[in-house]
Task: inverse folding
RNA sequence: AGGCACGUAGCCCAGUGGGAGAGCGCUUCCUUGACGCGGAAGAGGACGGCGGUUCGAUCCCGCCCGUGCCUACCA
């Protein structure tokens, strides 16, 4: 900051200081360092691509907290890393291969995985660079990846432990199957379309075996009838009572299938009769199990009708549906077709319509794991912010279903299970076995499937710290303090981490979860990689600066709500950065020596005022940060720095700085520097680069080599000065009133004017305002009117708590305009007065309202009354005089 | 279907049981020695609708309308 450019220029500053911080290892958390600690793990970004604005907000908030706690002197760990993101990454790599005309099957598993690792190298680096450009103070010496050896060991340890406890099992069940990704999915990955999708409800007759009319079923997926092995009705449904136990004929395939009674059937829906294809629907599977109906699989993994589908074998599900409906219609068995909104689930990763599919998969029994997670929130040991998420969290845990963890993918942790070719038994092992644990056969083969990517993520808070080993890091930094993440992964990740934390370490992995805002575009769509509607954070940083971007997203993000972002909005932060820069520039050009704050007696009222105000802001900022009110903290600093420090204090200080009195000038400069020091520290977590650049340049005694390890300011009560706050507050209002009059009277900005002040009784300090009025409002002379004297024919303004300020017309104003203004004011005052008097006239108000409120209203009425009288007088005198 | 948020100035959003706010945009003016990424002064709002609680409601409660999100085995 040797030569002071007029505008703040981020790029060089950012690079220089980030390099310095790294070199000094300020980001590194030493587990051997004494004292209180603070730890937080990053929600590991997927390596599918570069970061979005959502990541910018999420990581900015984390960095704010981390830098705040570090400045408070805590040994602070921010654990960084990335997630292999199994299915998502496999898909993007497959897509990039497709662009070359290659499929993963052509490459083979080993070659394909090599390509994925290459991908991970590239995007892992990109993500790291983005976080660093943003200023994130992660402990990069500890960077982790979910497929690192250590983390993979944790995954295997967990699988084996759960297996040994009977909480991991292999089940033959209906799962969500993506016919495009060719893998099973968890319930959470099968996304329900809001409000359903356009479709039809087909009413189909299944004739009776006895030649009778049989039953009419209603279905939204007629092609599944090929797998029907029964029809279900409600036991209390009189329409079908005679049919229960009898059989009907499944059209097109001519299979005889029984009619059973089950209470899950809703007689009100459709025809009250449900076709039951056990292998094609999870509910039907359960009905079938209760009534001994055999499952019949009629679909292949790619969504085509298989050999069990008779004449329809080989057809794609969509085509099969079309043909079956046509055939039914032709045979007169299609009773009715109505338009209907059909609930449809789609693959989270490729949007393909999911098929319920009967297959062998691995599951985790979740109910036992959920209990401590429920208890943690109920007892308050774990706090969710905003609080409304606790209901969502509890509801999910209380109704939790088993978790399908096997995926028919290549990219991920292989399932540590080996099947014996001789005895058929399973061997589950922490280290790769070479023989069957049951019969000793060497003919064993590992399960080809991999684990759900979240099966490694749910261990993140401790697997990154070296678990299952009892490492010093784990002992020092687990459990973490806070998790900051998006509410969209509350089930995928947050709830499961809580469960894993309790199950494997007996402790909740964090005390507080803060859900940050969702970043949307101007149309309200969530910014995401798949939509491609997020600006590239690096481009925004290049255009506006990292501090500007950080500050802007925090300033725009209300707690727990969404935020609409567009790159141009970053002007807010850039302008603020520039404002701060110039305030510092102003202070720095006053001299290079280092004045300390003088005795209280040498400080001017404005000096004392800003120091006192500063203490309040320090307290408010700390309180806001403690309560995760990031926006409030940011905007509080914005307002104070811009609209109090710059707009008023800097202007007040010029009087002393450019004046004759050397001591007063030194006091003002010392005050400026003192305030800037505290402000740079307060603001550092939000705008790390700019604050470091300025702080380093301040000619003050520094408690540290970097602002990022300087103590975070604490309120110092010795500077509290209510008297100075009251007096200077009056001055501000007076200056405003004079400027206002000038503007309304059309007095040219350069013209000097005289004013007369009739101070209110309690307007202490007004007698000292003259020099400030001269400087800030171009007032050539201030006359103080004796008590009770009210000049006539002069426009005036009323300043609450100060009195009235009069301004002679001096022939420059348009009298008609002045009258119009007074009339307007009079109308407003009269209305307010009427309302207040009406209130005071009501008995119930006087009796029931608290005394201080009543007193306040009385005071107000008196003020308004005085003002009204004065305005009236002036109007009269103007009319007469003109 | 149920649940949860939100509905405040033209736009994006803060906020509080007793006098409606910031930012952007808009109008007028200002190249005064930190800053035009600036300064000064303004205009602009029945705080979604209807009831209720209260001396008093933009704020608390209920219902309704609108928007968004989440959950759900209604074929």
Result:
């Amino acid at each position: 900051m040797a030569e002071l450019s007029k505008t703040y220029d981020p790029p060089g500053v950012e690079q220089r200081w980030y390099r310095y911080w790294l070199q000094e290892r300020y980001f590194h958390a030493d587990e051997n360092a004494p004292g209180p600690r603070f730890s937080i793990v990053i929600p590991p970004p997927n390596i599918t691509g570069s970061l979005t604005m959502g990541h910018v907000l999420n990581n900015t908030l984390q960095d704010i907290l981390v830098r705040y706690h570090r400045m408070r002197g805590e040994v602070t760990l921010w654990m960084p890393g990335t997630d292999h993101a199994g299915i998502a990454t496999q898909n993007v790599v497959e897509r990039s291969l497709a662009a070359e005309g290659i499929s993963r099957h052509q490459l083979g598993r080993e070659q394909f995985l090599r390509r994925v690792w290459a991908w991970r190298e590239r995007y892992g680096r990109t993500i790291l660079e983005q976080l660093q450009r943003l200023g994130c103070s992660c402990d990069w010496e500890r960077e982790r990846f979910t497929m690192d050896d250590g983390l993979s060991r944790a995954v295997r340890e967990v699988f084996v432990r759960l297996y040994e406890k009977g909480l991991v099992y292999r089940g033959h069940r209906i799962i969500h199957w993506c016919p495009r990704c060719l893998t099973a999915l968890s319930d959470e990955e099968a996304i329900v379309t809001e409000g359903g999708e356009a479709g039809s409800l087909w009413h189909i007759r299944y004739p009776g075996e006895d030649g009778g009319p049989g039953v009419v079923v209603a279905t939204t997926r007629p092609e599944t009838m090929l797998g029907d092995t029964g029809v279900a009705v409600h036991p209390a449904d009189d329409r079908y009572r005679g049919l229960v136990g009898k059989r009907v004929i499944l059209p097109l395939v001519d299979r005889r299938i029984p009619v059973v009674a089950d209470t899950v059937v809703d007689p009100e829906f459709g025809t009250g009769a449900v076709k039951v294809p056990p292998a094609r629907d999870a509910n039907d599977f359960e009905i079938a199990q209760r009534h001994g109906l055999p499952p019949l699989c009629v679909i292949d993994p790619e969504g085509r009708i298989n050999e069990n589908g008779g004449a329809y074998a080989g057809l794609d599900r969509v085509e099969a549906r079309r043909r079956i409906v046509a055939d039914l219609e032709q045979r007169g068995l299609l009773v009715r077709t109505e338009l209907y909104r059909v609930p449809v689930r789609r693959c989270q990763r490729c949007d393909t319509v999911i098929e319920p599919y009967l297959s062998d998969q691995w599951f985790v029994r979740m109910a036992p794991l959920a209990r401590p997670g429920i208890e943690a929130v109920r007892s308050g040991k774990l706090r969710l912010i905003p609080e409304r998420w606790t209901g969502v969290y509890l509801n999910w845990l209380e109704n939790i279903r088993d978790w399908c963890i096997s995926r028919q993918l290549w990219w991920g942790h292989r399932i540590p299970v080996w099947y014996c070719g001789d005895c058929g038994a399973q061997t589950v092992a922490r280290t790769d076995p070479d023989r069957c644990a049951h019969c000793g056969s060497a003919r064993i083969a590992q399960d080809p499937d991999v684990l759900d990517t979240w099966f490694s993520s749910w261990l993140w808070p401790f697997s990154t710290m070296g678990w299952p080993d009892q490492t010093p890091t784990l002992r020092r930094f687990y459990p973490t303090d806070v998790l900051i993440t998006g509410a969209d992964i509350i089930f995928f990740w947050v709830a499961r981490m809580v469960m894993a934390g309790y199950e494997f370490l007996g402790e909740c992995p964090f005390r507080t979860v803060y859900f940050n805002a969702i970043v949307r575009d101007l149309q309200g769509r969530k910014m995401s990689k798949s939509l491609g509607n997020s600006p590239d954070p690096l481009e925004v940083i290049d255009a506006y600066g990292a501090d500007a971007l950080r500050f802007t997203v925090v300033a725009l993000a209300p707690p727990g709500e969404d935020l609409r972002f567009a790159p141009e909005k970053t002007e807010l932060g850039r302008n603020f950065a520039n404002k701060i820069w110039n305030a510092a520039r102003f202070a720095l050009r006053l001299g290079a020596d280092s004045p300390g704050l003088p005795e209280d007696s040498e400080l001017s009222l404005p000096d004392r005022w800003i120091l006192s105000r500063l203490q309040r802001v320090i307290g408010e900022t700390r309180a806001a940060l403690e309560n995760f009110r990031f926006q409030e903290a940011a905007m509080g600093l914005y307002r104070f720095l811009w609209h109090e420090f710059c707009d008023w204090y800097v202007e007040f200080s010029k009087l002393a700085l450019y004046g004759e009195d050397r001591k007063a000038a030194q006091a003002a400069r010392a005050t400026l520097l003192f305030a800037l020091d505290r402000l740079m520290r307060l603001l550092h977590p939000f705008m790390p680069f700019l604050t470091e650049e300025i702080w380093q340049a301040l000619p003050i005694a520094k408690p540290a080599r970097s602002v990022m390890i300087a103590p975070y300011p604490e309120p110092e009560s010795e500077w509290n000065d209510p008297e100075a706050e009251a007096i200077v507050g009056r001055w501000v209002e007076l200056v405003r009133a004079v400027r206002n009059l000038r503007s309304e009277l059309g007095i040219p900005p350069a013209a000097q004017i005289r004013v007369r002040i009739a101070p209110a009784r309690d307007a202490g300090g007004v007698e000292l305002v003259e020099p400030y009025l001269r400087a800030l409002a171009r007032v050539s002379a201030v006359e103080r009117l004796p008590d009770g004297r009210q000049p006539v024919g002069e426009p005036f303004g009323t300043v609450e708590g100060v009195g009235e300020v009069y301004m002679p017309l001096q022939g420059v104003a348009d009298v008609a305009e002045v009258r119009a203004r007074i009339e307007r004011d009079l109308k407003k005052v009269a209305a307010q007065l009427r309302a207040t008097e009406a209130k005071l006239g009501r008995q119930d108000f006087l009796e029931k309202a608290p005394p201080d409120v009543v007193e306040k209203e009385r005071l107000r009425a008196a003020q308004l009354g005085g003002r009204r009288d004065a305005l009236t007088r002036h109007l009269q005198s103007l009319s007469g005089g003109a």
